[in-house]
Fold this protein.
Amino acid sequence: MARYRNKVAIVTGGGGGIGRVTALRLAVEGAAIVIVDRKPREARAAAAAVVGAGGRAIAVPGTIMAEATARHAIAASKVFGSLDLLVNNAAFTIKSTIAECSSADWDKEMDSTLKGAFLFSRAVLPVMVKQGHGAIVNIGSVNGLKYFGNPAYSAAKAGLLNLTQSIATEYGRHGIRANMVSPGTIVTDAPAWVERRKKNPQLFKKLTRWYPIGRVGKPEDIAAAVAYLGADEAGFVTGANLVVDGGLTAGMGMMVDEMTSAPKGKRRNS
């Protein structure tokens, strides 16, 4: 496929996990990629991986909370041409409960997950308005729809959905679309998952029982959704939230199993 031939994408948090796989997916489809990551080594390694796969990429190390990083990313995109897609993927969480989450923790997680997406979106929007086209895809989470732990992160992801809708509504007349992808559990090396797996090495295996599709997700699942929403074929899709969660939020399968496993002759509540 070549849906992104002659197109340019910025991917924040592109040094690893979902961001890196998304950058590679977009590059395979023809996009030139600007990879933004707070870890310089990871940013450069991801850019090198794109180039090694036959694509074009530039690494922009820096924190998404600095407006200067957004300016540098936009400047880097001009090396390739227009700026067609922004993928706001960077996020951070580590505190699993309200009791664990201090005021400073709350600010850090909200800034990393929501404010950074706002700053990058606000920076690229004037460029896209001038072009008369562009797309923004925000990486949300099922945590923004229901509570699965990590309160600050969950609140930030809920806010990200509203930000997505705000951009779609305000900038649609300029030919700009904004959508969100909300993943379920995705196997990555994110700090929160690393900590959890230290305590429970079989965590991902145990979590599969909650997923109707019978497995947890892969970064490739999310990259495919991003590639669709950012492409011209999704030209009439804006303000949407594409939930990619293996059926997790469709219903609680384990609860259904409990209710429907009553011995014969027992009355079941509807």
Summary: Strands lie at 8-12, 32-37, 56-61, 85-88, 134-139, 176-183, 241-244. Confidence is low (pLDDT under 50) at residues 265-270.
